Amino acid sequence: MSAPVSSDTLSDLLRTVRLTGAVFFDIEADAPWSKLQPAGPAIASSVLPGVQHLISYHAITEGSCWGGLADGEPLRLEAGDVIVFPHGDAHVLSSARGMQASADLGAYRAPASQLPVTMRFEGDARARTHLVCGFLGCDVRPFNPLIATLPRVLHVRDGTGPNGGWLGNFVRVALDESRTKRSGGESVLARMSELLFVEAVRRHLESLPAEQTGWLAGLRDPQIGRALALLHARPGFGWSLPGLAREVGMSRSALAERFALLLGMPPMQYLASWRMQVATGRLARGEKVVSIALEVGYDSEAAFSRAFKKLVGRSPRAWRADQSPPGTKARSAARKARRSREGSAGSAQERRLRGHGLARDRARQ
Predict the structure, then answer these.
(1) CATH of domain 215-322
(2) CATH dotted code for 9-207
(3) Is the dihedral of CA 94, 96, 97, 100 positive or negative?
């Protein structure tokens, strides 16, 4: 019997790596202006606490500016453009090419009021640029093949492709939502940020040359894309290379060769890595290790734990403890210490009571 195929492998991956978004800044900037945004690790704990990896994006809604990697050549950005930094690199935005810029880490502290933060840079109002800037968080450990295959910069022009114009309208809706400050607005904007990222990835996928390799290229390939869909649809199934090859209509050797060419690893290695990514998500939700083991295709908790430690470097329980929110470990240690002290005190009291009892018994004798 054929295994059911997930209709949307990209969405499945984004759910599993826990993509989450937030719109943080609504900026009106009059020339001259320039800003350096620090690398993701420097601001992640302030912007989206608890995320493993931070992605930044900027949507230009009015005017124009320059944007690019701090160590690269800037790109001209026009109204309707979106620029995304999938790897969280430090980058510069400015009103003119080549301007010096400095970072202000304090600007990335989440305010007490509802997001987004409105900012205004005064200058020449005739050269005004309006930007909506935001962030997305996701898991990259132990396995996120999408982030690994994306370039350091994604530049999406709204006028290109069959869906030209959609992106600009989308950003304008997001802008209206951000300015009205309605109830639930932050959640709406977070979802819209995620949709904007998905659209940027889809536009990038459409532009890939035929000879491109990587996860997205594999997704686009009819037979390898079906293989990926099967592995994602049923990660706990007892897949084998011959069985997978039959499902996608290829010989075993052809599947292994084509899969490795596009994704850089054999199908069964990909499956093992994907199983561990699924497992970490379930661990984060507090599910029992034995249940997770069976869900992702292992016969026992011990076999799963060995495989998990080999790939991730930590046991499942140790990994889950490492993901605890800040302060949780300290509170847990304090509770253990308190219980230990109480236990020691109780033991000492019991010894004293036993001693008194023995003394009374001897006195009676």
Answers:
(1) 1.10.10.60
(2) 2.60.120.10
(3) negative
